[in-house]
Amino acid sequence: QVQLVESGGGLVQAGGSLRLSCAASGRSFSRYTMGWFRQAPAKEREFVAAISWSGGSIYYADSVKGRFTISRDNTNNTVFLQMNSLKPEDTAVYYCAAAWDVYPQGMASIPFNVMDYWGKGTLVTVSS
Hints:
The protein is mainly beta.
């Protein structure tokens, strides 16, 4: 069993930065592919970024490529999302997810109910 708790959301002006964290509890965190997803008001949940268990493979949605950076610290069971050059369209609830035996690119296309675990989300609001 793995529990995921996101933090770091808040209100920021366009062009600003935020760093989200996802703290995991439970065994075997380091063997899961971890991903970030987001859901804006009245929109479907969408993939943002994913990182393999070793950190050696990373995949981003085109909409955040070059602005967001995903990383992980397996010693402290935490995955991060550094978000720079934020835009109003980045406003959403950001969720952390864990998937077993999935490549990072695969997290962008597999059904959401295939993910093994989800956090409850953290709200990011970008003002113009």
